[in-house]
Structures are given as C-alpha cells and as structure tokens.
Amino acid sequence: MVDVTFQSSRVAGAGTRKRTSLRAAMKRKSTAAFLMTLPLILLIAILVLYPAFYSLHLATLNKSMQRFVGFGNFEFLFKRQTFWLVVQQSCIFAITAVAFKALIGFIVAHFVHNIPAKGQRKWRGMLLVPWVIPPAMSTLAWLWLFDPSYSAFNYTLSFFGIGPIPWTGDAAWARFSVILVNVWFGAPFFMIMYLASLKSVPEQLYEAAAIDGANWWQRIWYVTLPMMRNIIAITTLFSLIVTFANFDIVRILTAGGPLDHTHIFATWAFRLGIEGGDIPLGASVSLFMFPILAIAAIFILRDINKRGNEA
Amino acid sequence: MASTVVIDKGAPTRKVKYGSMSRDRAWALRWSYFFLIVFAIFSLVPPLYMLITSLKSSAEISAATNPWWVFHPTLSNYIELLTSNQFLTFFWNSAWVSIVVVTITMLISVPAAFALSRMRFWGSATLATGVFLTYLIPDTLLFLPLFKMFAAFGDWTGIPLINRWYVLLIVYPTLTVPFCTWIMIGYFASIPKELDEAAIIDGASWFQTLTRIFIPVAMPGLIAATIFAFTVSWAQFLYPLVFTTSTDQLVLPVGIITTLIKGDVFNWGQIMTGALLGAAPPLIIYAFLMDYYIAGLTAGATKG
Predict the structure, then answer these.
(1) What predicted TM-score, i.e. pTM, was given to this entire model?
(2) Which residues cross the membrane (chain A) (predicted)?
(3) What is the ipTM of this complex?
(4) DSSP states of chain B as a string?
(5) Would the CB atoms of A5 and B196 count as touching at under 8 Å?
(6) Are A17 and B203 a contacting pair, CB within 8 Å?
(7) Ranges for all domains in chain A classified under CATH 1.10.3720.10
(8) Over the stretch A230-240, which tens digit does the pLDDT of each residue have?
(9) Domain spanning A72-310 has what CATH number?
(10) How confident is residue B1, by pLDDT bands cut at 50, 70 and 90?
C-alpha cells in the first residue's frame, strides 16, 4: 500500500512540476514523515531502550553503585536458595496460569459461540468484567475474600464441612491462590480473542465435517484448532510474557510470602531493589525475565515475516 | 413390494436420527447456559463482593454475620471517602494523570502511525515492527533503571522527578504509545488508498490528508486507542508505587493500598469502597463503549 501512494504522488507531481522540485518534494515528504515519527522514536529510545541496556550495566555494579563487580551479583544470587525458589515459582506460576487461562478461555468462548447470537453480547459483557477492573483493585477484593478470619469462601465451604482453608497462609495454598486470581483476571482476554477467531471460521467447514460424519471432538480437532492456530499461538505468547512479568497480583495478595514461596521475578526484584535499597541486585533479578522475552520476540518476528510473505 | 419395504425402513431411521440431532442441540444449549452461568458467577463474585462489603458498617463486618448479605445497608463508607480530602486528592491525581497521558499518547501515536502506514522512509518497516516489540518489554523490567535514571536526572538538573506525580506523565506513555501506534497503523492501513490519492490530487497537504481524511475515517480505531490508553494509565500500579511516596502525590490504586491498609487494622468496608470507586471509571467506560473496547483488544493481535 505504501508503494502505491508513493507512486501516485509522483504521478500527481510529475504532471505539474519540474524534476528538481519533484525531488525536493520527495525529500520533504520523507523528512516530514521522519519528523512525525520522531517523538515516538525519542520516547522509545530514551525511556525503553536506554533503560533496558542501562539495567544490563546496573547489574554489574555493587550495592552503592560505585564499583564494577562484573558477574558478582549473579554469583551471589546463584548461591541463594531464595533465588532458585523464585525461579521455580515464576515458571510454575506463568506456565500453570497461562495453561488454565487458555483452556478456560477456549471452553467459555465455545459456550458463548454456541448460544443464540442475540444473547451473546450480554454474556460476553459479563464475562469480560474481570479484565476491565484494574488488577490492583480486584486483587484487594480477592484479598478480602481470602481473609484469614473473615474469609467469605471459608464461610461458604464450612456448610459443606470443609475446614478453614489457609488461602494465603500456607505455601501451597498461597501458590494456588495467586494462580487462581491470575486465571480469573486473564481468562476473559483469551475468551474474547478466541471468540473473535471462532466467528471467522467459515460455517461450511463444520457442515462439510458433519456430512463426513465427524463427531464434536473431531470437529474441534480437525477444523477449529487448525483454523485458530495462529491466534492461539499469539495470545498464549502475549499472555506468557505478561504473566511472567506480573507484579500487581502477587504483590498485593501475598507480597511474596509465606517465607518467599510466592515471590516471582518482578516482586522479588522490587523487594531487593526498592525496599532493600540494592538497585543493582534487583536489576540482576529482573534481567532473568529477558530470555522469555527474547524467545517471544523471535517467534513473533517469524510470524510477522511469514505473514508478510503470504500477503 | 420390496422397494416399499426399503423405503419404510429408510424413513423411520432417518427421522430418528434427525430427532436425536435436534435433541443433542437442545442439550448442548442447556449445558452451554449452565456452564456460562457458572463462569459468570466466577467472574462476578469479586466485584459483587466489593459492593456488598462497601455497604456494610465496620460493626457489621466484625460481627462476622453472613458475608454474602447486607443486613443493615449504609452509605457511610462512601460518604466518608468522598468527603476525605486525601481520597479526593488521589482521585484527582489519577484523573489528571490519565487525561494528560491520553492526550500525549494520541499526539505522539497518531502522526507516527500515519507516517508509518502511508509515507515510506528509510527504516520505516523496521520501525513499525520495533514499535510492536517494545510493547512486549514489561514495566517490571524497566522500573529499576528508570528509578536510577530519574534520581540521577534530579541530581543533575535540580528538577526533582522522584516522588512527584508528574513523573508519571513521562513514564506512562512508554506503556500506551507502542500499542496505540500499532493499532492505529492497522486502522490506517485498512483505509483505501484511493481516498488519500483523491485528496492529494485535489491538492491537500499531508497534514490535511491526516486531519481531514484519516482521523475521521479511522475514528473507531481512535476511540479504541483512547480507551486503551486511559484504562492502562488508570490501572497502572507498579510505576506509581516505585516513583511516588508522599500521600499528596499518589494516584488512586497506590493511594488506596498504602493509606487504607494501616498495619494489621484493615478497615475492609472502606478498602472495598475505595476499590470499587477506583474500578468505576474503567467500568463505566466499558459499559457504554463495550464494542470499541473489544475492538481495541482484538485489533492488537489479529492485525499483528
């Protein structure tokens, strides 16, 4: 599309102007375009790229940021048991939460897609509410639902004879709780994405599959999933990044406790860097989020290039 | 004779099969509604519980009666918060920051998206991809270097940035601009080239093409991007938590968490009221502009 406008302006110009002024106009156009993107470039360069590289530098300094210590911070981290706990918990948290978000989103999208079209808007509206509420605010509601002495869940469960559950007090339950809240918050996003992509699957494919005698499982496996493959991949990748870098939910719900068992990279980096005053150590911790980003970037770039070739 | 038997045999089986299929459909529909109700309850319990608790007095909460019901509804929590200067400061800080950030975001991302989608220049394709990739760099990776940078900037120029609300005007655009630019590129690219060709033949400048044609035509995209920028700035929690500490500089989410939670004494009625009031602006926008909201949400991935 860019080529066409480019040529059209050339054609429009060539009719009336001389060659030199045309060249000047071209020059002006690209200069104007560059100036229009300049604020964007500056913003990204100064406030995203520079800090990203600066954190690499910060990670090699000592606590007072006076002395270069090389890999000293990393050596220190590798010797601490808490660090390995955080690595483990970050992986458990991100992978479990994303898997459940994707699964629940997929199932709910199917149910919404199944019901008559005129009711879909209403249901979709209700089901997307968790995604709309600022996570810091909704996590407060969860914190209150999980309260050790006044938990509304424990009140309800007590009628079924299930004893008070230490939602945020016990390490295993606290890990469950942070994942539950994250799934609650993130599943609607998957639902909306999958619903949009379900609607774009042509109905004829299902009809053809039904005529061939496919049952519902075969229809999902051979028609729906291949058609949705792209959107599933990209949504999962997005969500993996966001979940891996999550801060709000864990910070408010457990603040990393009990005994650092629910800390993930972001909350531990905050604890060390801001609360503990050791910015270089915190920066070294947050750098461990980088590999997942690099992997995601490679996949997304590949995807964009592939689409570019198809188009 | 033989042929009629075959037809007689064929007709009932066919009818039965057809009947079972429609019965399957009816059951599938019933199950769909059943599970949708279950999931809707799961989605709506926390916000409803916020509302229930916000209508209770402290006495009723500590009496530990049925938590799912309000026996003596009262608006005292709302009155107390909405007349407290501190809470109103948080609210105004949040509103002010969000509105200015939305304006900055639009001023940066709309011209950039226009240039990247219609005017080719050296490196423009790479830049468009790069913009999308920066959207993937999370705030949790950048807050420590940014904290150090702002502190150093304050020492160097004498303009304090740490613990001032306006520092948020500088950092929030890093979260909103890349995504808004990306979805605006998508919307602009879907405008037929004939429209701007016609405008250029009629003698419009690039600026006029943008303001007279692209912005009006891509209005739905613009609204979606605005909503996105607003909700992101309103909900952001990490940056204000790191960069601001004095109570007069805080925005709503951080303000509620740091001032209403005092030690071990949790005034849950007020916390839930504050949380509900903090969730209200995005919820109201969502209630009225749901289609734009969803368009913005899905445009980012389907067009990428």
Answers:
(1) 0.83
(2) 32-53, 92-113, 125-145, 173-196, 231-253, 279-301
(3) 0.83
(4) -HHHHHHHHHHHHHHHHHHHHHHHHHHHHHHHHHHHHHHHHHHHHHHHHHHHHHTS-HHHHHTT--TT--SS---HHHHHHHT-HHHHHHHHHHHHHHHHHHHHHHHHHHHHHHHHHH---TTHHHHHHHHHHHHTS-HHHHHHHHHHHHHHHHHHHS---TT-TTHHHHHHHHHHHHHHHHHHHHHHHTS-HHHHHHHHHTT--HHHIIIIIIHHHTHHHHHHHHHHHHHHHHH--HHHHHH--SGGG--HHHHIIIIIEETTEE-HHHHHHHHHHHHHHHHHHHHHSHHHHHHHHHHHHHT-
(5) yes
(6) no
(7) 72-310
(8) 788 888 888 88
(9) 1.10.3720.10
(10) very low
**What six digits make up the tokens of A273?**
């860097």
Return the structure tokens found at B285: 């926008």
What's the rounded Cα separation, in Å, for the pair B245 and B54?
Answer: 26
Cβ distance A137 to B279 less than 8 Å, yes or no, reads yes
CB B147 within 8 A of CB A274: yes
Chain A 113-152, CB below 8 Å of chain B: which residues?
114-115, 121, 123-138, 140-142, 144-145, 147, 149-150, 152
Residue of A nearest to B180 (CA): A40
Q: Which of A37, A38, A290 has the most B C-beta neighbours within 10 Å, making it the best mutation to test the interface with B?
A: A37
Average pLDDT, stretch A168-174? 85
Among residues B259, B237, B263, B265, the alpha carbon closest in space to that of B246 is found at: B259
Q: Which amino acid is at A89?
A: Q
Superfamily of segment(s) B77-302: MetI-like (1.10.3720.10)
The type of residue at A242 is V
Three-class SS state of A17: coil
Contact criterion met (CB < 8 Å) for B141 and A245: yes
